[in-house]
Structure formats: structure tokens, C-alpha cells
TrEMBL record:
Organism taxonomic ancestry: Archaea, Methanobacteriati, Methanobacteriota, Stenosarchaea group, Halobacteria
GO biological process: iron-sulfur cluster assembly
Gene3D superfamilies (alphabetical): Fe-S cluster assembly (FSCA)
Disordered: region residues: 1-26, 82-108
Protein origin, superkingdom: Archaea
Organism the protein comes from: Halorubrum saccharovorum DSM 1137
Name of the protein: Thioredoxin-like protein
Domain NIF system FeS cluster assembly NifU C-terminal: 19-75
One GO molecular-function entry: iron ion binding
Length: 108
């Protein structure tokens, strides 16, 4: 598969299976695709940069892209940077200790 084909598949998957990113004011960028190794790098930004549960979303994207797309062997997800990126503290560890989040899995 070509890098363009793998990039298109990745973009399609994220648009259709992770609509919460756009619905909540965030966005994603596919920064790099290596067709030979199957490595994909995705950055999430916009409102995701300031979201305390972005690490949970990033973890889900890493796992699900590799599991669901043929040709993807490794996924790197990072927060998009920039001078105006307001990154909130990571709330993942706090949430993992809260009873209501015991079985939390992002809805995508």
C-alpha cells in the first residue's frame, strides 16, 4: 500500500471513528506515514491541547489504529504544539482512581 493510501485510510478512520475530536473543538493532523514500516504519526490539537483527558484519547487512537487498519504497525500520537497551545494537566491518573471511571473507555 502506498503512503498516500495509508494516510487516506488513517484520515478516514479518524474522521469516522473518532468524531468526538472535531465535535469538541479539536482537530487531528497526520504528520507522517511510512509505508514501508507501517508507522503513522498523528497530532491532536485545538481543544485537545487543553483537554485533561486527551491522554486517554491518544491511548485509544494508538491502540485502535494499529488494531483496525491493515498496514499500520505502530502509531505515535502527540499533542500539537505551538505558541498558543494551552495544555491542561493530565487528568488520566486522577480519573483512573475515581469509581465512576473504573470501566471508562472513550466512546470511539
Amino acid at each position: 500500500m502506498s503512503a498516500q493510501g495509508l494516510e487516506r485510510q488513517t484520515r478516514h478512520y479518524l474522521s469516522n471513528n473518532v468524531p468526538q475530536i472535531q465535535e469538541h473543538g479539536g482537530h487531528f493532523e497526520i504528520e507522517d506515514v511510512n509505508e514501508e514500516t507501517g508507522e503513522v504519526t498523528v497530532a491532536i490539537g485545538g481543544a485537545c491541547s487543553g483537554c485533561g483527558i486527551a491522554p486517554m484519547t491518544m491511548k485509544a487512537i494508538r491502540r485502535r489504529l494499529a488494531d483496525e487498519l491493515d498496514g499500520v504497525s505502530e502509531v505515535t500520537v502527540r499533542r500539537a504544539g505551538g505558541p498558543r497551545a494551552a495544555v491542561m494537566p493530565d487528568k488520566t491518573s486522577e480519573m483512573e482512581e475515581m469509581e465512576e471511571y473504573t470501566d471508562y473507555s472513550p466512546p470511539f
